[in-house]
Amino acid sequence: MSENGILVDYTYCTGCSACEVACKQEYGRKAGAVGGVKVMELMHELPGGKLDITYYPVFTKVCSLCAPRVKKGLKPACVIHCMANVLTYGPAEELASISFKKRKSVLWKGGE
Amino acid sequence: MSENGILVDYTYCTGCSACEVACKQEYGRKAGAVGGVKVMELMHELPGGKLDITYYPVFTKVCSLCAPRVKKGLKPACVIHCMANVLTYGPAEELASISFKKRKSVLWKGGE
Amino acid sequence: MSEEDVTIVKTTTWSAGPGCHGNCGVLAHVRDGKVIKVEGDPEHPWNQGRVCPRLLAMPQYMYHPDRLQFPQKRVGKRGENKWERISWDEAYDLIEKRMNEIKAEHGPESMVFLQGTGRDIGGWISMLAYAYGSPNWVFGLSGISCYTPRLMVMWLTQGDFCVGDAAQWHTKRYDDPDYKIPESITMWGQNLPASCPDGFFSHWYVDLMKKGSELVVIDPRCTWLASRAKIWLQIRPGTDGALALAYLNVIINEKLYDEGYVQKWTNAHHLVRVDGVKPLLLRESDLRAGGSASNFVVWDQTADAPAVWLSDQQAYDRENVAPAFDDEYDVLLTDGTRVNCKTVWRMFRERVAPYTPEKAEEITWAPARDIAAAARMYAKSKPAILHWGLPIDTIQTTVPTAQAINHLWCLTGNLDNPGGNVIARYPNSVVTYPYNSGGGVMSLSPEMHAKRIGTWKYPALRDFRAWAHPDIMLEQVFSEDPYPVKGMWIQTANPLACTGLDPAKWLAAMEKLDFTVCVDLFMTPTAMMADLVLPAATFLEKDSLKGWWVPLQAIKKVVTVGECKSDIEINMEMARRFNPEFPWKKPQEMFDTILKNADAGMTYQELCDKTWVLPEKGHPSAPYFRYEKGLLREDGKPGFKTPSGKIELFSSWLEKWELDPLPFYEEPPYSPVSTPDLYKEYPLILTTGRRSVASYHSEHRQVPWLREIDPDAILEIHPQTARELDICHGETVWIENQFGKCKRVAAVTPAIHPKVVMAPHGWWMPEQEGSSPHLFGIWDVNINQLIPMDHHGASGLGCLAKSILCKVYKMEGK
Amino acid sequence: MSEEDVTIVKTTTWSAGPGCHGNCGVLAHVRDGKVIKVEGDPEHPWNQGRVCPRLLAMPQYMYHPDRLQFPQKRVGKRGENKWERISWDEAYDLIEKRMNEIKAEHGPESMVFLQGTGRDIGGWISMLAYAYGSPNWVFGLSGISCYTPRLMVMWLTQGDFCVGDAAQWHTKRYDDPDYKIPESITMWGQNLPASCPDGFFSHWYVDLMKKGSELVVIDPRCTWLASRAKIWLQIRPGTDGALALAYLNVIINEKLYDEGYVQKWTNAHHLVRVDGVKPLLLRESDLRAGGSASNFVVWDQTADAPAVWLSDQQAYDRENVAPAFDDEYDVLLTDGTRVNCKTVWRMFRERVAPYTPEKAEEITWAPARDIAAAARMYAKSKPAILHWGLPIDTIQTTVPTAQAINHLWCLTGNLDNPGGNVIARYPNSVVTYPYNSGGGVMSLSPEMHAKRIGTWKYPALRDFRAWAHPDIMLEQVFSEDPYPVKGMWIQTANPLACTGLDPAKWLAAMEKLDFTVCVDLFMTPTAMMADLVLPAATFLEKDSLKGWWVPLQAIKKVVTVGECKSDIEINMEMARRFNPEFPWKKPQEMFDTILKNADAGMTYQELCDKTWVLPEKGHPSAPYFRYEKGLLREDGKPGFKTPSGKIELFSSWLEKWELDPLPFYEEPPYSPVSTPDLYKEYPLILTTGRRSVASYHSEHRQVPWLREIDPDAILEIHPQTARELDICHGETVWIENQFGKCKRVAAVTPAIHPKVVMAPHGWWMPEQEGSSPHLFGIWDVNINQLIPMDHHGASGLGCLAKSILCKVYKMEGK
Fold first, then answer.
1. Chain A residues whose beta carbon lies within 8 Å of the beta carbon of residue C40
2. Residue A28's domain spans which residues?
3. How far is D726 from chain B (nearest CA, A)?
4. Global pTM?
5. Of the candidates D726, D729, D814, which has its C-beta nearest C726's C-beta?
6. CATH number, position D336
7. In this complex, do B43 and D693 lie within 8 Å of one another by their Cβ atoms?
8. Count of domains in chain D?
9. Which among B78, C488, C576, D392 is least surrounded, fewest beta carbons within 10 Å?
10. Confidence band (pLDDT; 50, 70, 90) for D442?
11. Regarding beta strands A105-109 and D7-12, do their DSSP bridges make them parallel or antiparallel, or are they unpaired?
């Protein structure tokens, strides 16, 4: 069986945290404790001196890629609520074939 | 043409920074400025109170997935030097089919 | 969770809840009369399923243990935090009694009705004010500095309001064949992903970026958008006016404006007499006895003589007029004098001439080369959106600055065009928010309107919207001149923690008043000082409707929490008690009337069934190019709803109000340039008002899922500045100036300019002691202690929230 | 870069360079005589292409503008930073003259030879010392507290050293059919991914984790490994001994030890007489006149009488002896007295009996339940690795603690087994690092050896390795008793910034000495105080060889940088000058002799051609189960290279040195328990020595790619503690105790225990002023100012670097 994954077109992640709170609401997680997804911020100078801010949504140990929702035919909570529409859920191999022009993307895969 | 990518079995990334310095050496990048890869640390409490430390190597705007090395038939500098052997380079769709048992992995893809 | 028990209700947002001005479609998941989850509605064209953290945290917000759930009456001293639970009937009776006493003793005008930022509040609170008989409907931010200045400038310039066109009028959105992806988007002073302002969904611009729109970002902070921009102008806060004049300078000098457009649609040809102290538009009445003061004059090059522009006809007084564009003439007046007149265009060109990019660099600190490049990029992009934010309102020179920026889209033809700045009207003409005196549902007598506070000082307030002036109102609480202010109805507003600059003055006012009611969802610092607190509903607990800007949509009551009631119900019940002729018993009846008056073609129930509707193409509330089609003016003629029917580059409204009719720049009153000596003592520029996705103004601080995103009342400070001051990230520091001081947690970040510090506003600490004098820690964290009231432009609008001086220093010991 | 110009040289690492003890295979990319890049060698079985940041930063290290490139002689006052460049010959002449003066006036013993951590330094500096004639080869860390204590305990317990088996002896590594993946790995006090210690590649354990090994981590800090562990024991620093005793308690009480193994291979049956003040092993000489003191006694249950264990025969003095395991007997001695004797096992069992998990929880702060679970997990895993780190050395009770831990693998049979703790010997018997007096290449007279500093006080030093005692040596600089110390050769050691506890005392010593030479790669604080500074080579600039532990391998000179020379060349040149009989002219000749003496079957050139070799199966330096095969003892009999031939649970060596022969626990001398009054003033436990992947001890602080990873001299402190002290992340704070104070940058992290602070060692600031008294900021940041010398166990080993008290507080003003 093909594994499912979440493709992140992180170039456009604005760091809005909707994914984080969607996950916390979906699973009733406590504030303070980590949820299934966390948006990491990297603020750095690019060659040439320009300041760059990039947000990386990363998935944690407690993320099940929303197995309970997926079982019901729904998309993961973070995916449907992502304000910048940068998350796509589906079979990992299909997602791997999606190309964003001239930019990198990142695909999170679940094991087994 | 299939795009290439780097698969990160981040469960075992120890945050050693070898990827970062490998990239800086390979491209003679200045210290202080960002390189092609940056290891982000997420330290958080898991449900139940256990402290978790997870490192996420993330790839930045300046990463070309080591196009100059790949052209010569070499693997990306970060991939060969990763101390924890958590980076795999290859065609994204093939990498997407690699399954790490009961854990998540993350695949970075280059565009075009 | 058993799925069968869950009902999913389709509704839409407005306050209270996420707080913002968005129109998100929402799916509320309800079980056993309780909202257990909210999700975005994927079928709603506005948000397409996406929603923000504040919406997603609704269950924590609605069922928060601190949520106010029943009316309570003060039983201790004011602020002592001793309350007695009472019934709604007792509360209504008490209010009726006390407010009638005030009316009897001082007149209804002695009762003021205060709201916070406009959402599903304003319309209903003014309804109550007018039903009671008072003209004093107030928004508490000094100088009414929230959207009102920009709205006024847009209204006086092109007769209508404009917003960036992200295809929000189209069901199919970006795929609509009439729509064009903007080549560029200029984000002027707004960190859009952090908030959905004024009828706009923040991430539409991210959608457009993906589709190829290039960005210019004007911001003192390096936001995510700034880091993604082709050009980022890191300007000194408060200098937007100089930058806008430099944009105009480049566009005019390099002839990047659309000359045909300017000649056709603006009042560039109109003559201005420059013989007096102030330039004045030449009017037909100047030329000939019996001539109309509403008609304007051009110089007809064909006849080498003046010609008259008949405003009501939208035509010259003769055929084949070839109006001079950039010239000056001596014109013979009816009294026989000959006066020098210049065309508006020449006046305008001369006004912007000193503002070269180099001059603007001096003022704004942004590099001249980048300023010129940004201006060129805006002018050359077809189409281009210019999106602006609150920093244009919260400066002293708000009106001329807004005017200069508004002129940019007028000069480049980016007005009501696809992918430009389109005209935003109430959808299907349904007005759910009264923008002018008594608009919407109720009216007052002219005598009573004349008592509206501040209108005697600032004539603009008489003609635009229905606000009393907040700074004069507050002063009047103490001065009682020209009449006393004795009571205050405060509805979902929190002046002590948020809207009120100089909060100690607001506190003193609340202490002096005879009677204060606070309608809110939580016990805020402001509610703590009230005599009576009424629990308000979230958007999931009330029926309402919204038409700002699109879609027109229904907000549906999904559940009840405690004894909370909607603002509308509360206001309507009191309106009925004060005005026996009040026409409706239930909100739904009123909504039906509103829809009927607008000829919307549906009842409220029908709107609820649809949830949302977009105006059909061809309706005056749907774009594009309505000024060509005669859809803007009542007379059906092409043109604009301005006095001249033209886009008024030289504003006849401003002239009428004895304000400068052309844009200009003035230094902020406390700045390195204005007050160099003060700058030595206070060497940093303090700017406030940064948005966070985790809170809406002073709301949400008590919601755990949101508070963890932004836990501290921070002060953003540059690493270099922090190093010089020996301040580290996370350290609590003092910020101080001549007006006051507060404590903040230093957030050391390269995103801010080294000479600027940013203190987000609206902070209070719901977890701290609430009783007076603590008031949830506001005296520690409220940045407004450093910002005085009563600093406006000549218009009466604007304030100093965006640019003032301060110093930052380490705390000694604890 | 044109590829054709680049030569790739295959070599291997040791110092100087990455600094560590790893054996990585390296591909050096060379162009125009310059190393332009280093990469890992994918064909090398040790690292398989992987390398650490320090290796990858080699080009920045080698060609750093501050690199010492020629010999220089002090021309100003000591520490004044005034130098004159001289030639090597001038340098050698000057050294020869000054050292011969010292020898003539005071004797060669008055010259000491100081090294830092052992790498490609120790062997060659001792060669110089002995050629010169001095026995005083010193490692400067107080109590020789780096691996020497653990090595000594391993040697006295089972006659050989053990390390975790990560298949490093096998070319095919984990795929070798003889290898077994350990079921569990217990990481006792080492954050392995941060450093490759003592012949071990850090990430092998990550390889094993991927293959299923479960972790137990014992660490006061939540490292990445701790966060990945099945059980993490967050113990109080310095209480490892109590924890180890509790492990033993659980394993013994729950009978989780391998009884057959213990009975067969340990001295559990040997009788101990308990009639005196100290328990003593009963020896044949006690039983009968003429009996050997080297033979031991058991109680034969068959005969109900004593039987003698003949150590040199590895057999009893008769057949069918059934030795009692856990009992006590009255034994008749040759003098007619009858003394009570217990078996070693009973002694041992009684010793660990008080240390229940509950008792250990009291002492260590780790939960009793977790302690018991961890002990069970270790004992039940087959096989199991127990990996231990420096915290076992850098405590006062190092010897008994190491002994208790060593006993764990002895009790569970995890000794020289696949996937357990295997015996590590010099590969192919090639000793490249002299571990015992004069081992390797040179010898001294017994008279001169008797002058080795400290051997008169600590007998263990006489029998194990060849170190002089650093604390006594330093004191002797001032006391000149029993003889003066007048000169110091310091080779790639930095006592002022790193190894030296109480650095002010080290500085005073350097100021008092007549002559000091410093061999190093950069101008360190220590080099700054020397009379002569010689520039040393990195591993890419010298020929050498390494056999610790595996593989045996060649280090090849790839390039030359300036006039830098290898330690070996420098030491050999001086050895030749001091000893006319010194047998070799060039290092390569010496390497050939070393290889020949070991019967390695190859020349140095042949080793270079292979780069690395692993000992073949069956060689005494290759595992497994060598004690069964008679590969450990010189006599070829099964058993161990200990006095009894058994694993000595009760140590005859310790008995000989008049130390407690059984493991025990003692509180650190300054602790909440030992010094409760002091603890009130200094309420935090200070621990030092944490490793960083970005630096090796005091090295690499000037390498930009590494410094940016760990830019500050930090103090790790728990958020709760920081909050109580009003300290924020990034703030510079004072750390102080009764011995001294220093400044650190607070790193607020939940990874540390709230009552513990961790200050990484080895900090100096190469970017700051170097001249005395500044010395690159050591008086600001050197944590050793809080740690005194002269606090050892009775063995003379151990120090207080891992556990002392302190307070932390905010800086007032600047």
1. 80-81
2. 4-109
3. 22
4. 0.93
5. D814
6. 3.40.228.10
7. no
8. 3
9. C576
10. low
11. unpaired
